[in-house]
Amino acid sequence: MNPILRIPIFCLAFITLAMSCSRDTQPSSSYVVETIPMPTDLDAGTGGLAFLPDGRLAACFTRGEVMIYHPEQHDWKVFAKGLHEPLGLWVVNAHELLVMQRPELTRLKDTDGDGEADLYEKVTDDFGLSGNYHEFNYGPVKDKKGNLFIALNTASYGGKIQPNPRGEVNTLGRDGEDGRHQMFSAVPYRGWVMKQTPQGKLEPYASGFRSPNGMGIDPEGNLFVTDNQSDWVETSTLYHVKEGHFYGHPASLIWKDGWDQGSPFDLPITELDQMRTKASVYFPHGIIANSPTQPVWDTTGGKFGPFAGQLFVGEMNHKRIVRVMLEQVKGEFQGACIPFLDNQGLPIGNNRLAFAPDGSLWIGQIAHGWSGDQGIRRVTFTGKQPMDVYRMSLTKNGFDVIFTRPLDPAIALNKNHYRIRHYHYAYRKKPFDEPIDHSQQSNVQPIGIKELHLSEDGKTVSMELDSLKAGYVYELELNNITSKDGIPAANQFVCYTLNNLLE
Amino acid sequence: MLVVLQGMQLEARGVATKDSLRSIAIEAISGMQYDVIRFQVTPGETVALSLTNKDDMAHNLVITAPETREAVVNAALALGAKGPERDYIPESEQVLWTIPVTYPGEKKAITFQAPKKAGAYPYVCTYPGHGFLMYGVMYVTKGDEGMPDLAKDLNVPEARRREQPAKRPHPYDLSPPYWYRVFLEGTSLASIAVHLPHQLSFCWDTERCQLRYAWEGGFLDNTDLWHGHKNAYAKILGTIFFRDPVTEPIRFDDTEALPPVVYKGYRIRDQYPEFHYTVAGKDVFELIKELPGKNGLIRTIRIPDAGGPVWFRFDHASGVTHRFSAGVIQHDKVRLTAAEAQNFTIQMIKQEKP
Predict the structure, then answer these.
(1) Which of B159, B163, B213, B347 lies 20 to 30 angstroms, CA to CA, from A24?
(2) Complex ipTM more than 0.85, yes or no
(3) Interface probe with B: pick from A164, A181, A184, A293, most Cβ of B within 10 Å
(4) How far, in whole angstroms, is CA A403 from its chain's centroid?
(5) Which of A229, A371, A420 to mutate to test the interface with B (most CBs of B within 10 A)?
(6) How close A503 gets to chain B, by Cα (Å)?
């Protein structure tokens, strides 16, 4: 393109951006965000959130408290204390919780009915600890068979192995003397998702995780785990986790049964690439999410709005959470992600999510030395249908973009209202000098729209594209899309991870 | 209008300081903050401003027109996909001067003429997620006008306006006994620190299933540990008077072989934790309290079903004198019958230094 011709287009793009910015700051009346009052003197870095069957909320905080909130009485009570960096909660019943601590998965029981746990039972501590600050533990989540799953963070090159580690130390899982810029696994099962069987045994389940600060099981029983962008994770991910699979961060491989290939960091990238299972969804860094957290499924049956069955994922670095629309293509999950609740009062640091029995979504914040916040927010659907992308589905030659409200054909069928790019996130070892939060898109290409079609109900825009290629993220930008009755679309960017084309 | 100089050039310029040049060095430090949160310049003065990134995340620095910090942060967020290529800096008249994304270890600098108009000119990191916490302010003031009282300065992050008033560390009062599972030195990483009345504390190791050491004085300083983002231990705020050189003191035979131990958990009894573990497959319950009227601890150990004699090993050089409620002392161990082992106590009295 002639460079002179580019200038007005660029300016136009900037003006639309600026306009959309002011538009976005108008709070939507579809959702209301309220701040939950927290107890005085609580350092409210939220490590876990879960609802009790009676509608009370259990929450754990990084200084070791588990507290229970009565939503009607606005009243907090201590359930347990003295825990070591609890980062996950699972409700067994009104008197019994599981909590994931740094050294142990623990069962907390109130056996005398006074509202406070009096029995702190070890469920498992059969995993290593190097004392490295980054060895966070996540979960548990439970499947229908009664298995519990937990995830063990790798250690950071920003901290050493302490002199009193637990478990066998193997520095093959560490890249170089000082750890360089790669997260490492020097004690057993760091970088793994583990399965605790109902018989009480902790077994390695899947490997290749870097910082898997988010676990969830969908209503069908599929386990999903998010991972955080940096070395080997070019942009943050959502993985569908299956037993025995490897998800890409090499450090954990040294704990694979029978591993005899030396430092996994030294394996040829092509070999590692063949071993790994790709993400179901990539969250483009800086666009959708920089540090995704817990996934939860909207099982509210419409109480939380039109997105029933979809998935909401927390995000640390933006004042938002993320909505994920999964579909199965060739038997594997893939799909689109889109911001949710931008500019509606959510802070950053959105770490833990839980749906209340009344269908509201509760979001707990954390910082823990990173960019973040504190406290708990509650998000309620007002009943007003939002104007947003309901889902984005792959078709034979493009995408169907289904909106929650009918569109005006004049807008919906005008190509100028859409812009599509595709890009790829390479699987690679992070260069030594590259900053940890640098994420690189490769082969960024604008993709032309061949044809647009609008369904009779005005909600589905079918886009035929000039080309469609597996292994790319398709980023759709909506420019001034409004519903037929004039409501602007709540979001501008929706990104579809295309792993597989339709047959 | 915008001059980006390398650090070396700034240093050179710094040497040739003229009256009109004001050098300001700002560091991006951990905890999502600039070390310098405000500075003062005079109208029209030449300012040499550098940003050195000592954090482990990337940061930039954008000086904005007065009262437009949040608008610029939001405009930077709205860049979305275009953010990275533009250093997360929006095109806006509200953006006055910028230092582009500066990666850990880097230093970047600019020089500019301070505005002619007095006022509070914010500076902020517009990297996504940073702008709501990481900012400061450049005051352009004439003559002797000072900066506002820091405690009331709404242009700097709230956390930096003053030393925070002393808060309780938890939403409840702490009165002993209470405890933390924390990283401690001189024990395994999976240990429990318990604070007792009378300024006594002890460390119980869930890996070895035993009391490792005890101290008097204050309890713990958890500040570094709670901050996160770096390796840290809780600091012991007292003097250790007991350290057990014996590994796994409870034995079911009189050999040197270490029996397998398995930690099970603890139950709160009358506010104190009673540890439950197995030694060679046999259940052991251990409750440790302050010793009334004496300087030391009392351990109540219950082994409901020992099935035979029990030996408890101790060391005369551990810093305490051991007194057993039952059993026969054989130099550095005591032998108890299964019946005696069902419930016995050990007094551990602190030895006064000669």
Answers:
(1) B159
(2) yes
(3) A164
(4) 23
(5) A371
(6) 31
Min Cα–Cα distance to chain A from B164, Å: 12
How many C-beta atoms surround the C-beta of residue A446 within 10 A? 9
CB < 8 Å from A in window 173-202 of B: 178-183, 185, 187-190, 192
The whole-angstrom distance between B347's CA and the closest CA on chain A is: 26
Is residue A379 classed as helix, strand or coil in its secondary structure? strand
Could you report the per-residue pLDDT of A13-42, keeping only the tens digit for each? 333 333 333 333 344 689 999 999 999 999
Residue A159 corresponds to which tokens in the numbers above? 């901290």
Q: What does DSSP assign to residue A385?
A: P
Q: How far is CA A315 from the centre of its chain?
A: 7
Across the range B221-234, mean pLDDT stands at 91
Q: Tell me which DSSP letter residue B231 carries.
A: -
The answer to whether A51 and A57 are in contact (CB under 8 A) is yes
Q: What CATH architecture applies to the domain A1-30+288-503?
A: Sandwich (2.60)
Query: What is the helix (H) or strand (E) element at residue A224, kind and residue range?
Result: strand A223-227
CATH number of the A31-287 domain:
2.120.10.30
Strand pairing class (B135-140; B38-41): parallel
Q: What does each C-alpha distance from B144 to A161, A318, B37, B40, B150 come to in angstroms? A: 53, 41, 20, 11, 17
Among A108, A200, A119, residue whose Cα is nearest residue B285? A119
Nearest residue, CB atoms, B190 vs list A166, A319, A369: A166
CA dihedral B79, B82, B83, B88 (to 10 degrees): -80
pLDDT(B7) > 50: no
The residues that bridge with B124 in the sheet, in sequence order, are: B62, B135
For strands B178-182 and B310-313, give the pairing.
unpaired
| Residues 92-121 (B) with a CB less than 8 A from some CB of A | 103-104
Q: Give the span between the Cα atoms of A188 and A242, in whole angstroms.
A: 20
Mean pLDDT of A180-209: 95
Give span(s): CATH 2.120.10.30, chain A.
Answer: 31-287
In sequence order, the β-bridge partners of residue A46 are: A61
- What is the Cα gyration radius of chain B? 31
Q: Which amino acid is at A211?
A: S
